[in-house]
Amino acid sequence: MKAYDISGLSILVLEKQVLIRRLLTDVFTAFGVPTVHSTGDLATAWQIFNDNPIDIILCDWCEDLNGMEFLHYVRNDEESPNPFVCFFMVTAYTEISKVCLARDQGMTEYLAKPVSARMVYMRIVRVIEDARSFVRAPEFFGPDRRRRKHGEVPLRERRVA
């Protein structure tokens, strides 16, 4: 795996559990990232997002914290300072229906708990090396949901406008 200098990034961690929030903050500190904002509260996260240039959001999604609601605001609210921000959904929900729901709401990457420093770094590398363009449609705004390049999709499987 290629090594990247990510020390210039600004991170927002929205995580309900204090220990996991601290773990994620410590992971980024170990990566050399000096600017890591963290909170367990949606309103505070929204304020941080509006007051600071954020490059990556790591957001919890659980019964006590609606990460999908936060994702919706980040991508679709007219007041969102950066609807194109890299958004990692970090959750214990591993059902394919949940992954698809997050994808269809515009998340960039999905991390199933428990997470490791290596998993977080691998997702960052994936975003760097395989950046996807954003798509705006009547019911969707976010990174292109297709992972394969156009040339890799058989013609019979392509959608036609």
Secondary-structure map with pairings?
Blueprint: E1 10-14, H1 18-30, E2 35-39, H2 42-51, E3 56-60, H3 67-76, E4 86-91, H4 96-105, E5 109-112, H5 117-129, E6 134-137, E7 140-143
Parallel strand pairs: 1-2, 1-3, 3-4, 4-5
Antiparallel strand pairs: 6-7
CATH topology: Rossmann fold
Helix and strand run: EHEHEHEHEHEE
Overall SS class: alpha/beta
Strand order of the largest sheet: 2-1-3-4-5
How much strand content do the residues show? 15-25%
CATH homology group: Response regulator
Low-confidence stretches: none
Q: How many strand units? A: 7
Termini separation comes to 38 Å
User: How does CATH name the architecture?
Assistant: 3-Layer(aba) Sandwich
Total count of domains: 1
State the helicity in percent bands.
25-40%
CATH class bucket: Alpha Beta
| Largest sheet data | 5 strands, parallel
Give the overall pLDDT as a whole number: 89
Structure notes:
The chain has about 160 residues and is α/β, with parallel strands linked by helices. The protein has one domain: Rossmann fold (3-Layer(aba) Sandwich), CATH 3.40.50.2300. The protein has 5 helices and 7 strands. The strands form 2 sheets. The chain has a 5-stranded parallel sheet with strand order 2-1-3-4-5, with helices on both faces. The radius of gyration is 16 Å and the shape is globular. It starts with 9 loop residues before the first strand and ends in an 18-residue tail after the last strand. The mean pLDDT is about 90.
